[in-house]
From TrEMBL:
UniProt name for this protein: YiiD C-terminal domain-containing protein
Organism of provenance: Chitinibacter bivalviorum
InterPro entries referenced in this protein's UniProt entry, alphabetically: HotDog_dom_sf, YiiD_C
Pfam families noted in UniProt: YiiD_C
Every Thioesterase putative domain range: 8-147
């Protein structure tokens, strides 16, 4: 297991206790891709599908984790918060919740860091998908803020 993957999972479980309760695990973590998973059983609803709130939480946390990975790589310690978000529930999830956040562009995060250095706050928009065997089940987009 990579150092970043271990650090991210430990940080999630210590700083955001909900992640332990819903069974979040870090599948992969880099500055380009973060993948989180959560088992269906603690996140199930009355329809035997994943609860919408759990899907939202896993998506928010995948984006949060990407910001964490980028800050860690840059050697920066800052607070990370979600400012606002939109979510589309496209398909029911009847298996392990698998969320992916990709950030191939370095320019967007560089702008975020410049704002952070100048004003003590930076913002970045991130997209997350929850994918099942049937296809993309959830599309999430959120604005994350970093601050001192």
């Amino acid at each position: 297991m990579s150092e970043l993957k271990n650090l991210l999972e430990k940080t999630l479980h210590v700083e955001i206790p909900l992640t332990r309760e819903i069974g979040i695990s870090v599948i992969s973590a880099s500055t380009q891709l973060v993948e989180l998973a959560a088992p269906l059983s603690p996140n199930i609803n009355h329809k035997c599908t994943a609860f919408g709130g759990s899907l939202y939480a896993v998506a928010v946390l995948a984006g949060w984790s990407m910001v964490f990975a980028r800050l860690h790589a840059a050697g920066i310690h800052a607070h990370i918060v979600i400012q606002d978000a939109q979510i589309e529930y496209l398909l029911p999830v009847v298996e392990t919740i698998s969320a992916r956040c990709e950030l191939a562009e370095d320019d967007e995060f560089a702008r975020c860091l410049k704002l952070f250095e100048r004003k003590g706050r930076g913002r970045i928009a991130l997209a997350v998908e929850i994918v099942t065997q049937q296809g993309v089940a959830v599309k999430f987009s959120g604005n994350y803020v970093i601050h001192n």
